[in-house]
Write a structure and sequence with these properties.
single chain, four-stranded antiparallel sheet, 8 strands, 2 domains, 154 residues, PH-domain like
Amino acid sequence: MKYVERVLQPGETVVYATSLHWLIYLKAILLLIVALLCLIAAASFTEPIVVIALKVGAALFGVLGLVSVVSALIQRATTELAVTDRRVIYKTGIFQRHTMEMNRSKVETVGVDQSILGRLLDYGTVIVRGTGGSFEPIRYIGEPLTFRSHITAG
């Protein structure tokens, strides 16, 4: 949590910190499963053109899966979500940093959107609305109700 620690004001402490849910890896997992299925299917065929097509498909899905894994790893590693005793802090990005901070005293409402799958796996979208503006929706937050509770508890 490098960014949050760097921007803490004197006497300010982190009350709660969370990260993105593991579900951001779902696209990568599905692509890699399709690649594996293509390889398995290629082993069961004897016709060379079909085997080559399935192996090319497996390679394509495998590369897309690996790119998706790397993208999700970077996204999860570079996103910081924290509630301090004074502010709500959201930061994402490596080279192009995007940050949003809001004083907790200026927070009017905190909305949590969860689908059925989100409720089962405990992830969702949090929207913090404050006086004079609002945070953009923060998607795929792990334990969004706990995050909301720490924001509204102050």
